[in-house]
Amino acid sequence: MSTSECVFCGMVRDPIHQAPIYRDERVFVVRDINPKARVHLLIIPNTHLASLAYIGPGQLPIMGHLFVVAEEMARREGVTLSGYRLVLNQGADSGQEIEHLHMHLLAGQHLGSMG
Ligand code: AMP
Questions:
Q1: What's the 113 CA to ligand 1 centre distance in angstroms?
Q2: Residues 41 and 35: beta-carbon distance below 8 Å
Q3: Mutate to test the pocket of ligand 1, among 97, 103, 105 (most ligand atoms within 8 A of CB)
Q4: Taking Cα atoms as reference points, which of 1, 4, 2 lies closest to residue 14?
Q5: Ligand 1 — pocket residues by CB below 6 A?
Q6: Could you tell me if residue 89 is inside a domain?
Q7: Alpha carbons 96 and 102: distance in angstroms, whole number
Q8: What ranges in the chain are assigned the alpha helix state H?
Q9: How many domains does the chain divide into?
């Protein structure tokens, strides 16, 4: 998929169309259009990386930043203490729909066990 066809790259190019609730030099955050929990945010790198399959040591700063911003967003949403789940889908079996690396933050209700 080229960056011109990528939904999330489109948001980087046109931040007015769907205004992020957070933005910095590395990532932006939007509310998921089809939320799976009361709080469902997507933390998305500004730069196109298709998925975890393309991650190497050069991406350590952005991968760390995703977690730092996730916790900052959890604090802003008031869910740090009640709890939240971070999800990063990789590939078809995970159900990854959009081939632009992103982290889901789910919270605001009991999310059930993963096991
Ligand atoms: P994934 O399955 O990990 O690729 O997750 C993609 C997520 O992006 C899904 O939860 C979708 O509901 C969400 N999504 C797709 N298009 C948009 C959009 N325009 N704005 C916000 N979320 C979106």
A1: 22
A2: no
A3: 97
A4: 4
A5: 7, 18, 30, 32-34, 42, 89, 95-98
A6: yes
A7: 10
A8: 7-13, 60-77
A9: 1
What is the per-residue pLDDT across 83-108, written as a single tens digit (0 to 9) for each? 999 999 999 999 999 999 999 999 99
- CATH code of the domain containing 72: 3.30.428.10
Kindly state whether residue 112 falls inside one of the protein's structural domains.
Answer: no
Q: Give me the percent of the chain exceeding a pLDDT of 90.
A: 87
